[in-house]
Amino acid sequence: MINWEKEINSTDYFAKNFSLDDLEKFLRQHQETNFKKPEVALAFILSILALLLNASSLFAMYKGKGRKMSANARLLVSLAVADMCVSVSVFWQIGMGASVKRNDCLHIAHRSFRTSSHVVSLLNLCCLAADHYCAIVWPLHHAAVVSTERIKLAICQIWLISLLAGYSLFLPTSKGNDPRCENTTYCLRLSCKGYDSEYFIFVLTPISLIVMSVLYAVIFVKIRDMPGFTHGRRTVQMERNRKGLITTLIILATFCFCFLPYCIFEIYTIIGLKLDGSRHLHYIQWAMHLDYYFYDLLLLNSLADPIIYAIRLREVRVGYRKIMRHCFTPVDRPPVNSEINTRSLNTFVPLKKNIQPNYHPVTAEIRTTGSEML
Fold first, then answer.
1. Where would I find the G-protein coupled receptors family 1 profile domain in this sequence (predicted)?
2. Model confidence over 316-372: pLDDT tens digits?
3. Alpha helix positions (H), 103-198
4. Under 8 Å CB-to-CB from 240, ≥6 apart: which residues?
């Protein structure tokens, strides 16, 4: 979300006509995070749903696969944890409310944590697209190229880069040319500089979209050129490839629907404020509410990720079945095997002597064929 205090402070018009106290009162009046505002209530509901769905997907993945997870499953675990961090950042922001000043170090730490969570999600989406690309284009070398050790190293690098990008807001800065930033605290000077770590999201979003579009376009061409894709006998592998294409279209559509409107609005508003702050004076209050709605749209991505990625995995589906079976199976019901054993113990069947088995060749062949079919 836009750091309105920093962006307004960076414009010449507001720097000359507004003091820091007036700006603080204005932001407290129009940026209160209470549940009376529908955009705040919607963000809270979406965050709860995303947190529960990602947590259940992680538990189902553990029940279905255990500790022996594939490379793709490890990337999904990293993505689910990042989406859960996004939900936690929303709870953090609502919990702070208007009690914390916008230039406080706690507020800056919250913005850094939120930015790091979104950067991790973007990088994980690109890595999942690359893993899908290697599985389709290089199926024989996929296990060697995307090994477990390499995936562990890649996940560590993703989180390290994201933390450095998000918490780069705390890097040392000068006082700047604004006289209001003189003789102030360190965190207040951070809000006076023109840098914001959320710019990483605006840069990574189009790059991620281009990378994912190119990789999934190659995957589409590769699967389309496979024999029997358009006509002929449908095999299990071809059905998997068809489902994979549908999944790729859903991935790109969800990414464009959730990330692009938010980034376009943020970039347009920031550039507009820097070019002509007086022209946007009457639209700031309207833009603040719209900014929250676009961020709610971005939160839908954290809700869609476990549905698109995790539920389509076999081990996750197996984990969900185990959880449902454990929750809905009656405890007092005796197992089937014990009932059969009890009947066999209580039933006396006399043995008949001198009975030879039937070794007719036709009957033996039919029995053998039937056992193989089963």
1. 53-309
2. 777 888 888 878 776 555 444 444 444 444 444 454 445 454 544 444 443 444 433
3. 105-137, 142-145, 148-166, 186-192
4. none
Please give the C-alpha separations between residue 121 and each of 118, 293, 309, in angstroms, as whole numbers: 5, 20, 13
Q: Identify the sign of the CA torsion 363, 364, 367, 373.
A: negative
Architecture of the domain made up of 4-327: Up-down Bundle (1.20)
The pTM of the whole model exceeds 0.85: no
Cα–Cα nearest to 305, from 25, 57, 4: 57
| Residue 176 tokens, joined | 């700047």
Q: What are the domain boundaries of the chain?
A: 4-327
Interatomic CA distance for residues 120 and 81, integer angstroms: 9
Locate 18 and state its tokens.
Answer: 């507004």
CA-CA distance, 26 to 369, in Å (whole number)? Answer: 82
Is residue 162 a contact partner of residue 116, using CB atoms and an 8 Å limit?
A: yes
Q: Using one digit for the tens of pLDDT, what is the confidence trace for 189-226?
A: 776 666 778 888 888 999 999 999 999 888 888 877 77
What b/e readout covers 272-296, taking b as 16+ CB neighbours within 10 angstroms?
Answer: bbeeebeebbeebeebbeebbebbb
Pick from 313, 312, 136: nearest CA to 224: 136
